Structure formats: structure tokens, C-alpha cells
Amino acid sequence: MQEPTFLILTALAAQPLHGYGVIQSVTDLSAGDVKLRPGTLYGALDRLAEQGMIEVDREEAIEGRLRRYYRLSETGATTLQEQATRLHRNAAAAESQLGKRPGFTLGLTGA
Amino acid sequence: MQEPTFLILTALAAQPLHGYGVIQSVTDLSAGDVKLRPGTLYGALDRLAEQGMIEVDREEAIEGRLRRYYRLSETGATTLQEQATRLHRNAAAAESQLGKRPGFTLGLTGA
DNA sequence: CTCACATACTACGGTTGACGTTATATGGTG
DNA sequence: CACCATATAACGTCAACCGTAGTATGTGAG
Predict the structure, then answer these.
(1) Between the CA of B66 and the C1' of D21, what is the distance in angstroms?
(2) Within chain B, which residues score under 50 in pLDDT?
(3) Transcription regulator PadR N-terminal domain: from which residue to which, for each copy (chains A, B) (predicted)?
(4) Interacting residues of B19 by C-beta distance below 8 A, sequence separation 6+
(5) Considering only CA atoms, which of B104, B90, B100, B108 is closest in space to residue B3?
(6) Residue A42 contacts by C-beta under 8 Å, 6 or more apart in sequence?
(7) Which of A39, A68, B60, B88 could form a disulfide with B67 if both were Cys (CB 3.0 to 4.6 A apart)?
């Protein structure tokens, strides 16, 4: 699972959101590092719904514009938790390996 | 950056390795979850070398077989550390959001 | 001797997922 | 009227990963 997909699931974990709300939430959660484009978002939403990770919560018509709210399914929540654990493990492995790096001086010159 | 690429950089962080050694190291580091195929590995190695993340350390001819050792560059080490931090942040965000999940009963039935 | 297996790299084709852009539709602002 | 923010849909493109097969050598089993 890639970062945009992971963050979309993360955004939907706390409460149902419509597409545009997901874009804003993901920007927040990633401290501005990830800004979803429509092509990425709606493609991912369709895919995740097909996979049963998310479900349509409800649809609202606000001033002629359709708002489709999605919510995280139980399957999606379980998968997200697993992925989060995996991310933690990978990050820890990288930091551990970097610590073994020869010449890893942390800015010191060998003093 | 995707998981296989991240783990290849992680494998090379502690010491130079040749391709096959990377496959074994990644299997170890990921507790068997990620088994790199040649197509994934050598494609990634070429790409990472082009990007300056890794460098050819040395080449050895062992019993007619070529062994090409790669090492992580300074750029690669910095990038890997950044990615590790990002992974930790994303994992923490997901877990935090999951904690806010309505009906997040942790197996309880509401008693 | 032959076959299978581990080591080690190369080459090719296919699929997925993210990306960028454009189009549609409406209300508010200048 | 033009422009911007909201909100979704529908393209085409590209990067990255995946699987398989091929080349080559040494070792151990049958």
C-alpha cells in the first residue's frame, strides 16, 4: 500500500468524510507534505470501495453539488492498523541500520 | 518511495552488500514479509544509482560469478532517515485516528 | 552422470497505482 | 462577467513493482 492510499484510510478512520474533506484532512495529517489531486483521490476511493476497505456512508445534495461521504469499514480498520504496525517496524529497522553505519559521526569529526 | 525501495536502502545502510545479499537482508529485516524478486531488485538498484542514493562499492569475480557491491551514499542516508521519520509520523497519525474511531470497542461489546 | 538447488546477474513483458490535466456544475466575490 | 472555492468525473501517461525465464557455476543427492 502506498502513502496516498494509507493517508486516505487514515483520514476516514476518525469519521466519515466526503472527497474534498479527505483532501483537506490528508493535507493536515501529513503536515502539508501530501496534497491529493482529484485523479489520485477518486481513483483510490473507487479502488478502496471495490476492495471493501471503505463504504459509502451517505450522499447529500448541497446547493446542487453532490457530496458523497465515505466511511472506513471494519476490514479497512484492521488493514490500516496492520499497515501502521508495518510502517513502525520498517522505520525502526531503518534507524537501527543507520546506527550501525560506519563513519556515522552525527556531525562529529572523530574527536 | 515504496516499501521495496525503502528496504533496499535500509539493507545497505549498515554495510555494502551485493544484489543477492540485499535480497537476503531485506527478507530478514521485514521478518519474511518482503521477498524481493530479481526484477524488483535490479530495477531498483539501477534507479537508485542513477538518483545518487547508492554507489557501486566494488566488483568481485567469485568463481566466474560477478558480485557487484553497492553502498549507501550520504544523500541516500539522509533520504532514508527522512523517510523513516515520515513513516513514523504516518503510522502515529493512523493510530491516533483509529483511536478516535466511533464504536472502537477493542473487542468489548459495550458493557 | 544427471538432476536439483543455491548463488548471482540480466532481460522482458504485464499490471497496478499515482499523477496531471481537463471538464462539469454551482455559489460567492470583485 | 470573470475568477475562485467547492466537489466530482474522466481522460491519458508514467513510474515502480512483479513474475518469469535465461545464463552461468559449484555442490550434493540419486
Answers:
(1) 20
(2) none
(3) 8-82
(4) B41, B42, B45, B68, B70
(5) B90
(6) A19
(7) B60
Q: Number of structural domains, chain B?
A: 1
Which nucleotide is closest to B17, CA to C1'? C8
Chain A residues whose C-beta sits inside 8 Å of any chain B C-beta? 2-3, 6-7, 9-11, 13-15, 29-31, 33, 72, 77, 80-81, 83-91, 93-95, 97-98, 100-102
**Domain contains B17:** yes
pLDDT tens, position by position, A40-88? 999 999 999 999 999 999 998 877 778 899 999 999 999 999 999 999 9
Computed over its alpha carbons, how large is the radius of gyration of chain B? Answer: 19
Nearest-neighbour CA in chain B from A25: distance (Å): 11
* Cell matching residue A7: 493517508
C-alpha cell at A35: 496534497
- B5-15: burial string, b at 16+ Cβ within 10 Å, e else: bbbbbbbbbbb
